[in-house]
Design a protein that fits this description.
Elements (H helix, E strand, L loop, with lengths): L3 H11 L5 E5 L12 E2 L9 E2 L3 E4 L13 E9 L13 E5 L11 E4 L3 E2 L7 E4 L9 E2 L10 E3 L7 H9 L4 E5 L3 E6 L4 E2 L21 E2 L2 H11 L3 E4 L7 H14 L2 E5 L10 H7 L3 E6 L2 E2 L3 E7 L2 E6 L3 H19 L9 E6 L3 E3 L4 E8 L4 E4 L8 H6 L2 E5 L3 E3 L4 E5 L3
Helix pairs in contact: 1-6, 3-6, 4-5
Bound molecules: adenosine monophosphate and magnesium ion.
Length: about 400
């Protein structure tokens, strides 16, 4: 039986180096930067005013106060997008707005609230407060200097990165390609969820024939795949026959870069994924990973493509996706950070794992950081997963006391 970290390492070692493409910045949210991006300009690009007011020479207004205003001659106006051509002379000021370039000769801006302009004397302004040199001026290059690194390879672009890149004039970025990921669910018992909302009255219990269940793994895994940046592609459910499994895998491998299956990977006589994959020429690693839920897990390679065979039980599929497949989807895109987001909380009750495998326990962490069990932990119980907002990694044969600080692994 493999430890989780060994299994992840084996998977990551097989993932090829990413390939890049250049795309418009506006489509780059969540994409992984492929090449260093250096700032092409200073930010701000020019000295500019932090307020609406009057650009002045600080020495001219050094004595100004409400009791003893200094009167300056209004020499011009610089609206947003404009600039002042001349030079500010002693005794002059210029009307200026937030973000407008500071006129040459000015070394401070007095905010509008500290000035008085009289309609009858339209070319004069009274300054009611002194200004220190460079007061209310934002300096060119104080945010970003031309030539500095603003995005590193491996960074997944968030809204803030995108804002910074746009501010320096970047309109397109070279990012790594995203894998298309086939999502297959195997099991003759699986039925598609209904296209109409099922009635809760007992008369309509005919929605499922005896022995059938609604398929749920593809539904839950699709958003998990999408949030890695990979492109999920949902395939029809696959009945438990060798022929159907082979045909479905062949199609999935032809159309996608990576294939995720769920179900059909244990040792039951109806479990066809492994044999079908090998018949297609795939090389298989079948592991029991020492985690609960989710022990049986298949990883395989077919040419340059990969199979991730998840167990069928919904919680096992969910957890093995997060722990063993998600890192690979991120690495395929060259992401530097492939870990799940984490938060730290305090156990609000004791947690016990009497077993000999690590248990990834569904928990609910509240606003105050108190961590509670999300309910029944069996691998088919979806309601506790829906209540949970994280997992804690509970080592084998361990009890963690109430009050212990715990790392909570999150997926959203
Ligand atoms: P298997 O791994 O195929 O033996 O499936 C284990 C359990 O998970 C069985 O109870 C299946 O009915 C259930 N199961 C398998 N695949 C799915 C699925 N896609 N959606 C919901 N339940 C599933
Ligand atoms: Mg099955």
């Amino acid at each position: 039986m493999l430890e989780l970290e060994q299994a992840v390492e084996k998977i990551l070692a097989s993932i090829p180096a990413p390939k890049s493409e250049t795309i418009p910045l506006r489509e780059a949210h969540g994409r992984v930067v492929a090449e260093k991006i250096l700032a092409a300009i200073d930010l701000p690009p020019f000295d500019n005013s932090a307020v609406d007011g009057y650009a002045v020479r600080a020495q001219d207004v050094a004595s100004a106060s409400a009791q003893h205003p200094v009167t300056l001659q209004l020499a011009g106006r610089v609206a947003a997008g404009e600039h002042f051509d001349g030079q500010l002379s002693p005794g002059q000021c210029i009307r200026i707005f937030t973000g407008s370039p500071v006129p040459p000769g000015a070394d401070a801006v007095v905010m509008q609230e500290d000035t008085k302009a009289e309609a009858s004397r339209s070319n004069e302004v009274q300054i009611l407060d002194s200004a220190k040199p460079w007061e209310n001026i934002r300096f060119h290059g104080e945010d970003v200097k031309h030539g500095t690194l603003i995005a590193e390879p491996g960074t997944r672009l968030g809204a803030a990165h995108i804002g910074l890149l746009a501010a320096t004039g970047v309109g397109q970025v070279t990012v790594n390609r995203r894998p298309t990921v086939a999502l297959l669910a195997t099991g003759s018992e699986l039925r598609e969820p209904l296209s109409e909302t099922p009635s809760t009255s007992s008369a309509s219990s005919s929605t499922l024939a005896p022995g059938h269940i609604f398929e749920s793994n593809r539904a839950a895994l699709t958003p998990l795949i999408a949030t890695t940046g990979a492109i999920p592609k949902i395939f029809p459910t696959v009945p438990d026959t060798a022929e159907a499994t082979r045909a479905a895998l062949a199609r999935a491998f032809a159309e996608c870069d990576l294939v995720i299956t769920c179900g059909g990977v244990s040792v039951g006589e109806m479990d066809f994924v492994k044999s079908a994959f090998e018949e297609l020429g795939g090389q298989l690693d079948f592991w029991k990973v020492a985690i609960k839920p989710g022990r049986p897990f298949v990883f395989g390679r077919l040419g340059k493509k990969f199979l991730f065979g998840l167990p069928g039980n919904p919680i096992s599929a969910f957890v093995t996706f997060l722990l063993l497949t998600r890192p690979a989807l991120l690495r395929w895109q060259g992401a530097a950070n492939i870990s799940l987001p984490t938060s730290f909380g305090t156990l609000a009750e004791p947690f016990s794992n009497p077993g000999d495998r690590r248990h990834f326990v569904r928990v609910t962490m509240d606003r105050n950081g108190q961590v509670h069990s999300a309910g029944t932990q069996a691998s088919h119980i979806l309601s506790s997963l829906a209540l949970a907002n994280g997992l804690i990694d509970l080592p084998p044969k361990t009890t963690l006391a109430l009050g212990t600080t715990a790392k909570v692994l999150r997926w959203e």
